[in-house]
Amino acid sequence: MASRFAQRSKSFCHTEIQKLLDDDVKELIGDFTKPFVLPTVEGKRQDLKYITSEVMVAALNGEFNHLVEQILVIDCRYPYEFEGGHIKGALNLHQEEQVEEVLLQTPILPSSPEKRVLLVFHCEFSSERGPRMCRFVRERDRVLNEYPNLHYPELYVLKGGYKEFFPLFQTECEPQDYRPMHHEDFKEDLRKFRLKSRTWAGERSKRDLYSRLKKL
Fold first, then answer.
1. What is the pLDDT of residue 55?
2. Residue ranges of the Rhodanese domain (predicted)?
3. What's the helix, strand, coil split of the chain in %, to 5?
4. Residue 123 designated active-site
């Protein structure tokens, strides 16, 4: 009886220790070299790190410059949304092939190990397109590097997206306006971009399948 209790106790301790280790790993950036520099909040996707609009503005205004060399804001909305109003300095990359070309073919790296390059993704609500692109960058980055090394170990998603950011910080946007994805005047643009997105997703699935078959 005592032996069984000791075994259960040992198993419980191991489980608790593993949980603590897992929790610690979650607080480290993707290459496990250091903690996340920006304060994060709970978000829809448990595997992603979310920041508030307030933290975004603080970072863009240089409050973390002692550790951060560059912040790249990746706006994953369609071009007509972006043109209707976006965060100053943001890059409009709504297709995976654009991200491959701009971020991964020639990675933007910090000048020293002490400094960081941060990527912050968002879309209109940061519910689908932004998180999906964030995951895509991490997946491709893993493929391109020997584990656990990464070009971009520190990725964030802007919680609430542009819809939540704009009314709070209009002066940080240009033009100072907000054009929703389902705008009446851009129905044809929406149809066109959605069709392109589905086509690209289909082509990527075929490439991934071919790549896996080659490894068999």
1. 98
2. 67-174
3. 50, 15, 35
4. yes
